Fold these 3 entries.
Entry 1:
Amino acid sequence: MGRYSNTRVKINNNSKRVYSYTLYPKIKLKNSDIFITPKYSERLDILANKYYDDPSLWWIIAQANGIKGFTSLYSKNFKGELRIPTEISDILSEFNSMNR
């Protein structure tokens, strides 16, 4: 499942297909979450591939950590530990229902 596979497509005033906005669920802290200290310039898609076997799920890590506007972790834009949700089936289910 790709990140945009559930994104709605609309027809604009010029009869062109455009993507609508994508809604993301709030990701609650769980006891099963793990915390890592990422390396300088580590990318969220690489981490998603490592933990979820799917790089397109990078948005879960971003959403869980309040990361917006970047996918590579540099000291200027991110410091500290990174939370990795490990139980993601409920997150994906909520994401899918929000973007129907």
Entry 2:
Amino acid sequence: MLVIGNGESRLGININSINQVKVGCNAVYRDYPVNHLICVDRKMVREVVNSDVANIVYTRKDWYNEFSTSPLVQEVPELPYYGTERQDEPFQWGSGPYAVLLASMLADPWDEDIKLIGFDLYSATDRVNNVYKDTQNYNKSEHHSIDPRYWIYQIGKVFENFPHHNYKIYQEHLWQLPEAWIQPNVSLDKISNL
């Protein structure tokens, strides 16, 4: 199973050449077909539903009624834990953490690793790190980088709640796992090994 984030580290990867079930985030559908697409931003759901691409789109419970007449739209899965912090609230979860969660619920824990690409978390500059910056429904390239604390925490909670899965993060040289991701079922590999 391949989970596709939209960090710029994935730009050199031919995603079509990877023959696995694919769970993607937001505008990835513009470039690559995926089996499951997570769009928790209402504008992105509208874009996908109004496109000619027939992806299954998962969105927040809060937006579901607006799109429930579309057979393509489903609700994101419920969180596998209960927490009391703001970052534990389902509305605070972004597309990336929900994509990792959905992949964890769909994958067979005995047959496959869950591979993550494009989950850069940090920008190499103080500006936004996203493949789709400067396009419809995305920030301009001059926009400040996004604080990844919630993503790190939430994806770490997925790793923690699915200990029977093995997660492999593919990243560039010198990229380091966040502390919350250092778990027995999580490993880091060079993106060139994908």
Entry 3:
Amino acid sequence: MKKILLTFGIVAILISGCKKDLTLYPYNQVETTQAFNTEADVALAVNGMYAGLRTSTSYWVSGTFNILPDVLADNLVLNPLGRLSLKQPFYEWRYTGESTSGLFTSGYNITRRANAIMENIGKLPTTTATNNARGEALAIRALIYFDMTRLYSKTYTNATDADLTIPYVTTTDPTITPAKESLKGVYDKIITDLTTAEGLINASNGVGRLNKASVAGLLSRVYLYKGDNANTIAAATRALGATPSIGSLTTFPQIWTDATETGVLFKIKNTSVDNVNTQGVNYYQVTGGQKKSEYVVDYTFFQLFAANDIRKTVYTETSLYSGNNMNHVIKYAGRPGQPAGVVDGKVLRTAEVLLNRMEAEYYTNPTAALADLVLLKTNRYTGYVAEVLAGPALLAEIQKQRRLEMAFEGDRFFDLKRLNLPVQRDAVHGQNADGTGTPPVFSSLPLGDKRFLLPFPQSELNFNTNLKQNPGY
């Protein structure tokens, strides 16, 4: 932590030494001694905070996070003819502290920007605008720390009071060397930040920013992981409203080309000027008119997409590469007529919130869970006829629909952890659409394996001796 925060302290000093006019400060940096004199300064800092999630060097929304949890799990199979990106560190579960340094550093870089807002906004009178900025900063901080707990620690329902996770840093002080904290205590801090944020933030902030509904949706995500069914349902219902809009058979495909905001609670704008194509490039590049995929859809998983499931053609494309048909992931192909792979980063969709609610309802109100399931499937399957499911069959279908809906969005590995399930890849079939090719050599990650918790970067441990490595590394 000292290394990360010290870096930002040096950046602030260099900026203050070279720039005399506040208007010259880069929008994605915060110079805390001179900024935060007006609401316009606060708006600049808030923009910089969001920019931290979009930049190509970030591991978050427009970086590696849209593919990494699927690579770690069982939705994808490596294409040996691709660039072999993420192969050894993550697909083969051979990560070391050096493999994860980008994730760790990016997370604390973003939360540092949020903390700078929280530390300095008190200089200004309390207004609707400053309360809104506080809410946005609190929610971004909670969002990133929650993702980091999912990477570096157990999930709440699988943890004991003694299990530890990342330090929940709330300061920009570059001299601190914090130790790991109680996982359950950090969940409490995440929930407190999000609950406070929901009370402060505006009902609407425009596209590309958090608002009251999206913060409630994030709370539903955290409560689901905590196993708090009542609060999951309550938060999800606040986010969804009386008539959830999850994208229809017509509008759902438009979500992924940014032709509609329907069904999206929070996304990070990525314009053609920004030109960050990492989300799309994570999956494939076009070579000689063909898609050269890094990873393609696992053969067994692909069979779960029914012919009348619109997600099949929205998320995937079967086409030739090097003489063989492959099931490519095209979810992040981009907007028509614009650079390939440049697309807004969807952080939270209403469909996920609906899935959060229906899973919690299964344990408390199965009738309501079935109604939500029918709502989802009506908007994903052409010719769908409402079905009646109960008991284990209902739960199995809810979990299947979650896997299908959230595929390639950075969800699967964390879901397996949350449900206390091993990673079991198809060890028979390879990368080609007919199942031929090279099956995964690394096909199973058993329950209890240390690799469900990623290691902390060794460089950070060297600077912060209070931060101890995760067990087994």
